[in-house]
Design a protein that fits this description.
6-stranded antiparallel β-barrel; Thrombin, subunit H; 4 domains; 7-stranded antiparallel sheet; 27 strands; elongated; hydrolase
């Protein structure tokens, strides 16, 4: 036994050496791989002349008295230094800051961004926020040539803009690729004007697709770890074939610099917007005329939909295209114009991208069965006004209504006094909520006094007894939740699923 030990030790030492050699081989290959594919340089060289800098200026009123601060592009390394210097220096009269006691004087502010040429006739795509409110816009070509540009059209909802300028020489234009074909981990290249350093090339991978970061109604960003910084806005994101697959629009960063969380509008969206802006100077989006909400697991269980999917129709516009097509509140849209609808955002994007006036098939689930409806789309009118929820004033002098409890709610018949107290329109029918148990599921789902229950389990109700009867029956049937159709005072509907056990 003892004689075998030296041989075993020698074998272990040899194995250790072999493992060390193997590890060294693996480690030595990492730096070479980390540089990325060899094609990056070739691609960048091919497309860089199509990438431009966007310079804008705007006249603003500013207080005089402390001397003019040099106009530096946002993100410039010297911006913070000059900002501190001019704000903290003493101006005339000894006042600190130099801006007290002075007169308002017009001055120019400058900013820089990025863009790219999509037509050799001088058509440029950039972000709307790069050129918003600008009095003058200039396009700076890769060789330094500076040309004045004008706005063809903008779309605030996707933060895109199209510019046009007169080419001083033959231009290089780039084409859009198919962003839907991007794969996670695929290499991409960002070219732009970060911190005023024009013609900067960075590379990274596609970190995620279809990101919704609550920046707009049609969020579906490409996430990338390619370095994107201030000044990159409006610049292109390329695949290795030199096709534009996105427009770099924003970053998430606590410092203002790149931490590997950059977001680009996908080319599929950009191409459609650019086409319409060139044709019409504005966006003409499709309109279905419904209000929709998420199909939660509880709502899906109540509607016998497995798995939870689609967009739940909470309301139908009386003047919209969905009304004559027979789409009703409670329908769940699972397919639109041949495209699957996974959630409400999907439906919003698909409808908006569909041509106005086109007849499409809409597949809905109604009471557990699939039905197909044909709808001719209308045009969505832009409305940036936010609808305010009517306040529900307290009126302690009104006669206390007769109430009944169910589902953690105090329920009462809709009387004239209650309509007046909670500002309920005459067109709203159902049972009014006069109180909510703070520890109930209803409170968690944000039901409140003044809400009106219109339907329970897709059946209309007119009094509290109807609701209690329906809930008791669902309990006997072993249901875990009940689906309520709830209206506010203005008649706007939403669905709420509450636990019944």
């Amino acid at each position: 036994m003892t004689a075998a030990r030296p041989a075993l030790s020698r074998r272990l030492r040899l194995m250790g050496a072999a493992i060390s050699i193997g590890a060294a081989t693996v480690l030595s290959s990492v730096p070479a791989f980390a540089r990325g594919p060899e094609g990056i340089a070739d691609t960048a060289e091919k497309v860089i002349d199509a990438v431009v800098n966007i310079s804008t200026s705007q006249n603003v009123e500013a207080k005089g008295g402390g001397g003019a601060m040099p106009q530096l592009p946002p993100g410039s390394p010297f911006e913070e230094f000059f900002d501190d210097f001019f704000k903290n220096r003493r101006g005339p009269g000894g006042s600190k800051g130099g801006d007290k006691g002075g007169d308002f004087q017009p001055r120019k502010t400058n900013s820089l961004g990025s863009g790219f040429i999509v037509d050799a006739a001088g058509v440029v795509v950039t972000n709307n926020h790069v050129i918003a409110d600008a009095d003058e816009i200039n396009v700076i070509l890769n060789d330094g040539t500076k040309v004045k540009a004008e706005v063809v059209g903008v779309d605030k909802k996707t933060d895109l803009a199209v510019l046009k300028f007169k080419p001083p020489k033959p231009l290089t234009a780039v084409k859009f690729g198919d962003s839907d074909k991007l794969r996670l981990g695929e290499w991409v290249i960002a070219i732009g004007n970060p911190f005023s350093l024009g013609g900067s090339v960075t590379a990274g991978i596609v970190s995620a697709k279809n990101r919704d970061i609550s920046q707009g109604p049609y969020d579906s960003y490409i996430q990338t770890d390619a370095s994107i910084n201030r000044g990159n806005s409006g610049g292109p994101l390329f695949n290795l074939d030199g096709e534009v697959v996105g427009v770099n629009t924003l970053i998430i960063s606590p410092t203002g610099g790149s931490i590997g969380l950059g977001f680009a509008v996908p080319s599929k969206t950009v191409a459609g917007v650019v086409d319409q802006l060139q044709k019409f100077g504005e966006l003409r989006r499709g309109w279905l005329g419904v209000r929709i909400q998420q199909v939660t697991d509880e709502i899906a269980d109540s509607l016998n939909i497995k798995p939870a999917r689609g967009a739940l129709v909470a309301g139908v516009d009386d003047k919209g295209p969905a009304k004559p097509a027979g789409i009703e509140p409670g329908d769940v849209v699972v397919k639109f114009d041949g495209k699957d609808v996974k959630d409400p955002k999907d439906l919003s994007r698909i409808v908006a991208d569909t041509a106005v006036g086109k007849e499409v098939e809409v597949v809905v689930i109604r009471k557990g069965n699939e039905e197909t409806r044909k709808v001719t789309l209308g045009r969505l009118e832009d409305n940036d006004k936010v609808q305010q929820v009517n306040a529900k004033p307290k009126d302690d002098t009104a006669e206390k209504p007769v109430t009944q409890k169910a589902l953690g709610l105090d329920l009462a018949a809709l009387s004239k006094d209650l309509r007046t107290k909670y500002k309920i329109k005459d067109s709203v029918k159902g049972v009014i909520v006069t109180g909510v148990d703070n520890n109930s599921d209803a409170a968690e789902k944000r039901l409140s006094a003044g809400d009106v229950i219109v339907e329970v389990a897709q059946e209309a109700v007119s009094n509290a007894a109807d609701i209690k009867k329906r809930v008791d029956q669902l309990k006997k049937d072993g249901k875990k939740s009940v689906l309520l159709l709830v209206s506010n005072g203005d008649g706007e509907l939403r669905f709420v699923a509450l636990g019944v056990q």
